[in-house]
Design brief:
The protein has 2 domains: 215 residues, Spore Coat Polysaccharide Biosynthesis Protein SpsA, Chain A (Alpha-Beta Complex); 70 residues. It is 49% helix and 13% strand. It contains 10 helices and 7 strands. The radius of gyration is 26 Å and the shape is elongated. Bound molecules: uridine-5'-diphosphate (UDP) and magnesium ion (MG). The site of uridine-5'-diphosphate has 16 residues, from β1 and α3. Magnesium ion binds next to loops.
């Protein structure tokens, strides 16, 4: 990024059935934008854009009203509910050509808006991507906290590179968004893709606040979907595990053969026992291994089918 200028800042906010919080959220965002405008950190072309993920309540009416009353606010409405990640992507990709930097945040004001100042400072210092990191989860319920921790552990065990305690509160520069647009995959897990973009990154800590009103729109089902998407869109480790298991069982079957033969001649066995024992272990091992080999090929097809960019150029001299 070019340093020290009045940035055109876009804030994109995915909203699903957020009628209870939108009034307050828009007020807070407006006063923040006004403050940044007066201190000449951002330009007058800056906007706040709400993405209505096809809510079933009055969310879209409220967004329309806000837009009519104040040109600071814009709106995008999806034709069908596609979930937080897709709504967010729709917002990011729609505004990227208008903005210098885009901040994504939730509609419920759990992400502390004051952190935007620090994010812009990081941009001054050369960052293209700034991650908002929760400094504590004191205010989350026990269930949310432990499920989130389990999620990060599982992700890193599966080899997915994601940033600890970072949700989708982040700033991205226009050129980072242009690179993001090159990722064409359908199963989207932004938290996994953004670190793949590279560029200069920075982190900003903030205290996660309580939801202003309404209930969490992430049901247990949606959280599980996110976790499964996160792992299966980034890792073929689950397939590798089958191969390893196949090798392990084949190895064990050798010992079983020795053991069975020994018992057959030294001990007292029913006729046919040795044959069945050896068959079960041997065939089991071969089957598992074959499954793993098929899995390896599927993993290759899977990686190819995503057609991810193989490299990203930052500068050419
Ligand atoms: N959201 C969305 N589509 C959905 C579910 C959620 O756009 O299908 C939005 C929601 O309006 C909010 C953000 O995603 O702005 C995060 O949701 P929420 O605050 O309910 O999740 P939590 O903070 O409880 O994880
Ligand atoms: Mg929330």
């Amino acid at each position: 990024m070019k340093a020290k200028q009045a940035y055109i800042l876009y804030i994109v906010v995915p909203c699903y059935n957020e009628e209870l919080v939108l009034e307050e959220t828009s007020q807070q965002l407006k006063s923040k934008m006004d403050e940044l405008l007066t201190s000449q950190v951002i330009s007058a072309k800056s906007r706040v854009v709400f993405i209505d993920d096809r809510s079933t309540d009055n969310t879209w009416d409220i967004i329309q009203k806000l837009h009519k009353a104040d040109s600071l606010f814009g709106g995008i409405r999806l034709s069908v509910n596609r979930g937080h990640q897709n709504a967010l992507l729709a917002g990011l990709l729609t505004v990227k050509d208008e903005a210098d930097v885009v901040v994504s945040m939730d509609a419920d004001m759990q992400d502390d808006i004051e952190a935007v100042d620090k994010m812009l400072e990081a941009v001054d210092n050369g960052a293209d991507i700034v991650y908002g990191i929760r400094s504590s989860r004191k205010r989350d319920s026990f269930f949310k906290r432990s499920s989130a921790l389990g999620f990060y552990r599982l992700m890193s065990a599966m080899g997915v590179n994601s940033i600890y305690n970072h949700a989708d509160y982040r700033l991205m520069s226009r050129r980072a968004l242009n690179e993001l647009a090159n990722f064409k995959e359908v199963n989207l897990f932004l938290r996994g893709i953004v670190p793949l973009l590279g560029f200069e990154t920075a982190t900003v800590e903030y205290e996660r606040l309580e939801r202003k009103a309404g209930e969490s729109k992430y049901s247990i089902g949606k959280m599980l979907d996110l976790a499964i998407d996160g792992i299966t869109s980034f890792s073929i480790k689950p397939l590798r595990l089958i191969t390893s298991l196949g090798i392990l069982i084949s190895g064990i079957s050798l010992f079983v053969v020795l053991y069975t033969v020994a018992v057959r001649f030294l001990g007292d066995t029913v006729p046919g026992w040795a044959f069945i024992m050896i068959s079960i272990w041997f065939i089991g091992g071969i089957q598992m291994l074959s499954l793993g080999i098929v899995g390896e090929y599927i993993g290759k097809i899977y990686n190819e089918s995503k057609a991810r960019p193989r490299y990203t150029v930052e500068e050419i001299l």
